[in-house]
Design goal:
eight-stranded mixed beta sheet; alpha/beta; 347 residues; 16 helices
Length: 347
């Protein structure tokens, strides 16, 4: 009888634990908006009371984006990738803020932006509408758009979708979504290298905890940058903190779920904004030749879809060129956007 009661008690405890885990995993992720972003505080600290980076929030279609901004002049918008936040462009924000108005955005599911549970909110069309509305809110009719990884796919796609809003576009380490899907459709090697995407899409918060994903993200993406002296240990700690919440990481994976179907299920509607959408403004594409995500078929397609493309390939560099070779990348971006400026050629 005692053994039976102990067994029943164990089952009850397990049931309670399962319910608690499930309830936690589906409960919406929240973010502290009362405290300043520690990354902003870090970059502003050397300036004391003259700290120039300011934080803002902008709500559209019931979702709120967090962004930081500084400087005056033509606007440069920075769009980060996965798994990261606006802070991945810290070297670019710090470099360009003296001569431009810089705006670095936390995408949905990242940083201090909302992390909605509905995958439809992460569709590139929905996020592009949100970005266009944010530009309106900022009083910016046209901007230079710079993106890395998923942010690159978003930046180039935004330039294809809203060409009248974009002076120039810079994509680092990833092509436009219509170029990527073309590669998945036609190149077996692209399918093989993109196999990780389907694994990502199967994730959930308890599984991410069980697999120690927070440590995996830090060890794979950020620890090498700290050990190479490209990030300080304090900066590395901020990246670790920004990517350590399994519910927000799971929400961020919705970028994949919403926009990258299984290669066997590709449909014409997936080629956002369309299969043959072109990049009509000056475009700069930056790759590291050791980038495991690089695919020649996708790059060739992207170059073919671009009216005014330039390509910068960095030797012995992987997926983080703007951190690994910040000076080279910053100089290339400056030259690119100066040539595309509304004041280019003015006396």
């Amino acid at each position: 009888m005692m053994a039976k009661r102990l067994l029943l008690g164990s089952f009850a405890a397990i049931a309670v634990a399962v319910v608690a885990v499930l309830s936690w995993s589906i409960w919406p992720s929240t973010v502290d908006r009362q405290s300043p972003d520690p990354a902003v505080s870090l970059l502003n600290a050397p300036l004391g009371e003259r700290g120039s980076l300011q934080e803002g929030y902008f709500e559209y279609a019931d979702n709120r984006l967090h962004y930081v901004e500084a400087g005056q002049g033509e606007t440069i918008v920075f769009l980060h990738g996965f798994p990261s936040s606006w802070f991945s462009f810290l070297r670019q924000v710090d470099y360009f803020k003296s001569d431009y108005r810089v705006v670095a955005i936390d995408g949905l599911g990242a940083g201090k932006s909302d992390a909605p549970t509905d995958e439809r909110d992460y569709k590139l069309e929905a996020m592009a509408e949100h970005l266009a509305a944010l530009l309106d809110e900022l009083g910016t009719q046209q901007a230079h758009i710079v993106g890395h990884d998923w942010g690159s796919a978003f930046a180039i796609g935004f330039a294809q979708r809203y060409p009248e809003r974009v002076l120039s576009v810079t994509g680092l380490s990833a092509p436009a979504i219509n170029a990527s899907l073309h590669a998945l459709e036609t190149d077996p090697s692209a399918r093989k290298s993109a196999g990780y995407v389907e694994r990502f899409k199967q994730a959930n918060p308890p599984l991410l905890v069980l697999l120690g994903t927070a440590d995996t993200i830090y060890d794979g993406a950020y620890r090498p940058l700290v050990e190479a002296g490209k990030l300080t240990s304090e900066e590395g700690d901020l990246f670790r903190a920004a990517t350590s919440d399994p519910k927000r990481t799971n929400a961020h994976i919705n970028w994949y779920r919403a926009n990258l179907p299984h290669p066997d299920d590709l449909a014409e509607v997936d080629f956002w904004p369309s299969r043959n959408a072109r990049v009509t403004m000056p475009a700069l594409y930056i790759w590291g030749n050791d980038d495991p995500i690089f695919n020649q078929t996708a790059l060739d397609r992207l170059m073919g879809l671009s009216d005014k493309p330039k390509l910068l390939t960095l030797p012995d560099i992987g997926h983080w060129p703007h951190v690994r070779e910040a000076e080279i990348v910053n100089s290339a971006i400056r030259t690119h956007i100066e040539a595309a400026s509304v004041n280019a050629g003015a006396d």
